[in-house]
User: What shape does this take?
Amino acid sequence: MKDYKALTQQYEIDVYPRRDVVLVKGKDARLWDDNGKEYIDLAAGISVANIGHSNEKVVDAISKQAATLITCANTFYNDTKALFLEKLFSVAPANLTRAFLTNSGTEAVEAAIKFARAVTKKTKFIATMKGFHGRTYGALSATYKKEYRDIFEPLVPGFSFAPYNNFEKLSELVDDGTAGIILEPVQGEGGINIGQKEYFQKVRKLCDEKNILLIIDEIQTGFCRTGKMFAIEHLGIEADMMTLAKSIAGGFPMGALLCSDKIQIEKGKHGSTFGGNPLACAAGIASIDFMLENKLWEQAEAKGKYFREKLEQHTLSKMRELRQIGLMIGIELKDKSHPVIIELLEKGIVTLPAGTTVLRLLPPLVISYEDLDTAIEKLVEVLK
Assistant: This one.
């Protein structure tokens, strides 16, 4: 058998902090490595596999579409793309009526930044401390973490940052040049910090008063993760633009920027070679159909509540705080999360960090209660 780790180390630019595991197979909420060891997945590829790994509906849709038409230039109409758009807007917030389709979340954020500047004729943006919106230049400019930014500066000018859930500090940054405010309903990488309804409603009112576009980043929270189809439903507001990706197509690379009627862009001002290709759109239709048929938002709500109640039955000396909305869970530790992540991996549980001290859990929404019980048992062993 080939040494897959050695081959990767030889040929791939080493930008990722690796776990010493070669994953080769996945099904629902289980993963297997090249030695046959089985894992319970509490990461879902960073909230990508919401409908589970190798979902049969998505596998079948991709297979059929691949045998029909894989790629189609956006200068032509396409049947599968049209049907995907219809499906997407059947579940999207009602005020969002048009989409620009992309290959990733960071591309959706890039489009939002460009569109906001084009529509408002203004250039400045306000984002939040601990916020994460992507790694390409515009998206990185809206991302707070210094370690991601420092060696690539100067970034796109005009971005400033306010503390999350602090309306007063945010409003102080607004001026006549502010084109957009970009917010996550729940900060994912920032530590599973949950947005306050009153804060978002005040920001929405401010945007209306000052002719500012409100961009809601649902890349990690979208598609049933928080117990709603989209997390904005918890907040009682409307976005002018919404960025989507990760779980939109069952694990196949895809993203989207959804726009209200405020957003009008001239032909030729933006584009994508692969965005909205038939293969991704087929996967997207199958993925959304599965979510609807199985009411995954209800599963996320029930299983998240179950997880919280079970975990809180134990006294965990290493845990400082538990934050949870649906199946989006952050465990704030009293020390660094990395050793805990490695110890859990050794016990067959895949987890994620969210900053230095937060353990982030984003399991597939199809995870069984049996697997949740096993995962909780292992977490208790490690965190006691």
User: Anything to note?
Assistant: The two ends are 39 Å apart (CA to CA). Residues 95 and 154 are 36 Å apart (CA to CA). The chain has 13 helices and 17 strands. The first helix runs from residue 4 to 11.
